[in-house]
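<tokenise_the_fold>
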Amino acid sequence: CCANVDVVSMVSNITRFSSAWIRPVKNWSSPLSLYLDLHVLKILDVNEKEETVKLHVRLSQRWEDEFMSWDPLWYGGLPYFTVPTSRLWTPDITIREAIGIHRQYSEGYVSVECTGWVNRVEDMVLTLHCDLAMLLFPFDQQKCNITLYPQLHTEQDVLLYVDTRGRSVFDRKGHGEWDLMEVKVYTYSQKQYSHLSFQVELGRYSLFYVLNLMVPSAMVMVIDVAAFAVPVNCAERIPFKVTLLFGYTVFLVLITDILPPFRDTTPVLGVYLVVCLILLCVSTGESVLLLTLGKPDSYSHTTPLEKIIQRVSPGLLPTDGASEHLRAYRRRVSRGLKRSFALGHGREGLCGRGCVIGMVKEELEDVSEELRKLNWVNAQRSSRLELMEALDRFCFKLYTSTLAVFALSLTLLWTLNR
């Protein structure tokens, strides 16, 4: 028994047949089986602009060294030992998608069991290139691949397998803005090299964007819809909607830093914000247009809206009031010319009883015409208001229907693609 032999001598004796430069297989034609496992410890950062993902991972490697196995009873009960990686052969595993690898230690250690199995565990910070799909932002889920393969050894030398023995359950929460949804593993061979790919699926924590972007926009749209309750002929309606539009524009300017940049596809949230802005502009323009078209002309006492309707459908609006008003206007002009002619020839003072009665009759007719004119103007104002309200109700129904269809489309799009 070698119980009194020091550990250094025992390790040197065990590793005397193993080389750090040659694969540890006795039959050179047989491949070495390498078992790998990848555990995501933390999602550090996702850069949408540069399409990079930074992860803190733990890579476990396990292989059998056929030149190292011993009976612990002959080596003082030594079941395992650890040595620097430079003392033994280690596989040249590289990561295809990595653009930056930061290891905690420049030279790690490996653990050697008495059965000849070698275990290597190293923590590293990976910066990966990942094609990010931003269409469903902020309800998007990103998939990033971590492909491991030997840099020089072909599949005749090294075969990669998933180490199912030590598979650990990953933590879904606690990764900041992102949640770790799932990690899938694929093995395949490409160009005579064995590959092992870990597909990491990330889900964005969208509550921040919902509360800070979507809810304020939705509230602005609700207030804009409620503004249709203001009478269409009220002058305060337009300043209210213009203020609402200006405030929403300032809101969009302030949130530009929150929205991620996009290159190929426009995120649905960006479409949502732009459509809300367009609907606000349309709503404000509708109020301005109705108030402008409903303003009567000082000469003909008809509105541009009535003129448009009369051209489109001549029989839709009555025109008797306007023609009667024109005839009354002509009669007043005719009487005024007659009086001016009588005063010019000195006949006003020769007027007798009949003339006085005629003048009183004309005055009464003028008063009656003025009353009819007032009644006609009131009737025109009422009909004009009814027409504007009817058009405003039509625009309100069209506006709310468009808003509802848009909201339903966004909901279905986000729901079906998750």
Remarks:
- The mean pLDDT is 81.
